[in-house]
Design a protein that fits this description.
401 residues, six-stranded parallel β-sheet, 13 strands, elongated, formyl-coa transferase, domain 3
C-alpha cells in the first residue's frame, strides 16, 4: 500500500475533511478519526440513518479507526494533543479560533514535533477579510463565482446538485498532503497546509477570470442555460429518449456536420466560425435537436456520434451511474458491508495507481469509539486502568459499552 506506515489524526467531520482522509485510508494510511463526544461526527445523523450511524458517514469514514473524546474538557484536549504529536499528519476542519482555544494550534503542536504536518480545511482560510466567518459548501459556490455561471440566462443563479465546494476542497487537500509528505521526505520538515472551500472553485474558472481581464473588462461570462456560452454546439440536447451532451470544438465541427448529413452547414455563414456559431446558438441548437430526433433511440444516436468521433455522452442519473459498467469495472462503485445498513454501494477512489489495486472487499466504517482502547494503548501507552478511568469520567465514549 502506498501509505503504509503513515499515521493520520483525523479531526474532521461532515464531508470536506473526511473525504480527504478517506482517500488517504484507501491508500493504506492508518487514519485515526477523533470524534467529538458524546455524539461523534454529526454526519452520523445525516441521511440515511440506521442505529448510531448513517450511509453518509459510512461512505466517508470506512476503513478508519474511531476514538471518541469529550473535547469540551481539558483532559480530552490533552489526550488529542498528545496523540497529534505522535502522528505524521493532522487533518482538521474546525471553525475559526477553535483549535487555538483547545490548545491544538499548529504553532503549539509543531513546537513539540517539527516534522508533523497539519492540513486544514476552512471556509475562507486563516487570513483575509473573511477568515473570521464560518461557512459551508454553498458559500464556496457563491463566492467563487461558480454559482453565478450556473442556471438559465434569464433565471436566478443556481447551485449544483452535489456539494462540489466540499468535494473539491477534499480532493485538493488530499493532493496537498501528498506533496507535504514528499517535502518532509526530502527535508525532514513538517508544515502547515491550508485549503478553503472557495479557492479550489475559483481556480476552476477556465476563461471567466482571464477572459474578462484580457478584454479590459468588456467581456464577461454569464449564465447560458443548457448551452455553453463560449463553445457552440456544446451543452445539453434532447435526444430521442433522454438528454445527451455534446462538446464540439472547432476541429469537431466539420465532423458533426458530416454526421448530420448536412455538410453545407460547415461553411454556412451563420455557423462557419466559432464566433458565428455563438451568435446563432439558438438556431443551431434547434437544428441539432431536430436531427437527433430522427434516431430511434439514444443508443443509436450515441453509436452514430461515436463512429464519427463526436464527443458525446448520455446524461445519467446517479442511480444509473452507480450500476453503469464503466464505474463498476473501474472500481468507482464499491460495496461496503455496513454493520447497520448491510451491503451498501459507495463511491470509490477517483485515482488509479499502477502499484495499488483497490481492495476486493471494502473495510467497514467504525462504530463510535470502537478503537478507544487500541489507539490509546498504541499511541500513548496508557494502561487498562488509565483508560477505564477516562471512560468512567466520560472523557472517552464507546457506543459498544
Amino acid at each position: 500500500m502506498l501509505l503504509d506506515g503513515i499515521r493520520i489524526l483525523d479531526l474532521t467531520q461532515y464531508l470536506s475533511g473526511p473525504s480527504a482522509t478517506r482517500m488517504l485510508a484507501e491508500l493504506g494510511a492508518d487514519v485515526i478519526k477523533v470524534e467529538y463526544g458524546p455524539s461523534g461526527d454529526p454526519s452520523r445523523t445525516l441521511p440515511f440513518v440506521s442505529g448510531n450511524s448513517s450511509s453518509y458517514y459510512t461512505q466517508q469514514n470506512r476503513g478508519k479507526r474511531s476514538v471518541c473524546i469529550d473535547l469540551s474538557t481539558d483532559r480530552g484536549c490533552d489526550l488529542v494533543r498528545d496523540m497529534a504529536t505522535r502522528c505524521d499528519v493532522i487533518v482538521e476542519n474546525f471553525g475559526p479560533g477553535v483549535l487555538e482555544r483547545r490548545g491544538l494550534s499548529w504553532e503549539r503542536l509543531s513546537g513539540v514535533n517539527n516534522a508533523v504536518i497539519m492540513a486544514s480545511i476552512s471556509a475562507f482560510g486563516k487570513t483575509g477579510p473573511l477568515s473570521h466567518l464560518q461557512g459551508f459548501d454553498l458559500m464556496g459556490q457563491a463566492l467563487s463565482g461558480m454559482m453565478h455561471l450556473t442556471g438559465d440566462s434569464d433565471g436566478p443563479p443556481q447551485f449544483t446538485g452535489s456539494p462540489i465546494a466540499d468535494c473539491a476542497a477534499g480532493l485538493t487537500l488530499f493532493g496537498a498532503i501528498g506533496h507535504a509528505l514528499f517535502h518532509r521526505e526530502r527535508t525532514g520538515e513538517g508544515q502547515y497546509v491550508e485549503v478553503t472551500l472557495v479557492d479550489p472553485l475559483f481556480a476552476m474558472h477556465s476563461i471567466a477570470v482571464q477572459g474578462h481581464s484580457a478584454t479590459g473588462g468588456t467581456w464577461r461570462q454569464e449564465r447560458s442555460g443548457r448551452q455553453f456560452s463560449i463553445v457552440v454546439p456544446s451543452g445539453t440536447y434532447q435526444g430521442p429518449q433522454g438528454w445527451i451532451v455534446l462538446q464540439v470544438l472547432s476541429p469537431q465541427w466539420p465532423r458533426l456536420c458530416q454526421a448530420m448529413g448536412q455538410e453545407a452547414l460547415a461553411t454556412d455563414q451563420r455557423f462557419a466560425t466559432a464566433e458565428a456559431r455563438i451568435a446563432n446558438s439558438t438556431e443551431l441548437l434547434s437544428l441539432v435537436e431536430q436531427w437527433m430526433q430522427t434516431f430511434d433511440s439514444d443508443a443509436a444516436l450515441l453509436s452514430h456520434l461515436e463512429q464519427n468521433r463526436i464527443p458525446a455522452a448520455p446524461v445519467l442519473s446517479p442511480e444509473e451511474a452507480m450500476t453503469h459498467p464503466h464505474f463498476v469495472e473501474r472500481g468507482m462503485a464499491r460495496t461496503v458491508s455496513d454493520p447497520n445498513l448491510g451491503d451498501l454501494t459507495v463511491t470509490g477512489l477517483p485515482i488509479r495507481f499502477s502499484s495499488h489495486e483497490p481492495p476486493i472487499t471494502e473495510p467497514a466504517p467504525p462504530t463510535l469509539g470502537e478503537h478507544n482502547e487500541e489507539v490509546l494503548r498504541e499511541l500513548l501507552a496508557l494502561s487498562d486502568d488509565e483508560i477505564a478511568s477516562l471512560a468512567a469520567d466520560g472523557i472517552l465514549i464507546d457506543e459498544g459499552k
